[in-house]
């Protein structure tokens, strides 16, 4: 980050969408995390440039909503307890003890693609910590097909991050131990399904 702005080149890597340069948040040999500029919606040509050259263009669809939760191993949603420790099956990470979500507990789900916020978040800078940028539309979450409580205002961009959203929910108090399909939607667009372990 330079002068408060997200970089458009990181380790010699840049990405363009529709001819506009994206903001680069993370680079590895197998993954690029980028934040699109205000490119509008529809089909766009995307290219990646590295020190080895520029890729052939590929066509992508730019949509207002494309929600997805980040994932732990085994298709578990990236969920944390309120102290930010993983809410995941024990054994998810070798050598580390993890505690699943419990009935009645508030947990935080972490994802991307939940669209516009209110107020509108600025482009090209980490999300300011001075304002709560809640999703402009309501996020709905279900466990095993049953609606769970999403806290008002707690579906929002994460401060000091780039395009990362958090969604705070309460696990139903009467749910038995087990693995449950977790699904969220916003403006009728669903996330891919994941599996949340609940254990009292």
Description:
- By secondary structure, the protein is mostly beta strands.
- It is built from no helices and 18 strands.
- The protein has strands at residues 14-17, 20-21, 23-27, 32-35, 42-50, 53-54, 58-62, 68-69, 79-80, 106-112, 117-118, 134-135, 139-143, 146-157, 165-170, 178-186, 189-190, 194-198.
- Strands 8, 9, 10, 13, 14, 15, 16, 17 and 18 form a nine-stranded antiparallel beta sheet that branches. Strands 1, 2, 5, 6 and 7 form a five-stranded antiparallel beta sheet that branches.
- The relative contact order is 0.17.
- The mean pLDDT is 94.
End-to-end distance: 42 Å
| Poorly predicted parts | none
Return Rg in Å: 18 Å
Secondary-structure-derived class: mainly beta
* Count of DSSP-assigned helices: 0
Shape: globular
Q: Topology as H/E string? A: EEEEEEEEEEEEEEEEEE
Mean pLDDT: 94
Please report which band the strand proportion falls in: under 5%, 5-15%, 15-25%, 25-35%, 35-45% or over 45%: 35-45%
**Secondary structure: helix percent:** under 10%
Give the assembly state of these chains. Answer: single chain
Largest sheet: 9 strands, antiparallel
β-strand number = 18
């Amino acid at each position: 980050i330079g002068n408060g702005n997200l970089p458009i080149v990181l380790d010699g890597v840049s990405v363009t969408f529709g001819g506009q340069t994206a903001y680069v948040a993370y680079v590895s040999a197998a993954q690029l995390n980028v934040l699109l500029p205000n490119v509008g919606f529809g089909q766009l040509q995307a290219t990646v440039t590295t020190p080895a050259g520029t890729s052939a263009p590929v066509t992508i669809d730019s949509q207002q909503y494309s929600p997805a939760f980040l994932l732990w191993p085994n298709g578990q949603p990236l969920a944390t307890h309120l102290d930010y420790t993983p809410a995941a099956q024990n054994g998810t990470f070798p050598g580390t003890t993890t505690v699943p979500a419990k009935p009645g507990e508030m947990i935080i789900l972490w994802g991307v693609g939940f669209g516009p916020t209110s107020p509108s978040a600025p482009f090209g800078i980490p999300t300011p910590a001075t304002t709560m940028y809640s999703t402009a539309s309501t996020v709905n979450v279900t466990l095993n097909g049953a609606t769970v409580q999403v806290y008002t205002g707690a579906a929002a961009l994460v401060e000091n991050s780039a395009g990362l959203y958090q969604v705070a929910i309460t696990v139903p108090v009467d749910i038995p131990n087990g693995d449950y399909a977790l699904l969220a939607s916003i403006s009728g667009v669903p996330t891919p399904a994941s599996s949340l372990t609940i254990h009292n």
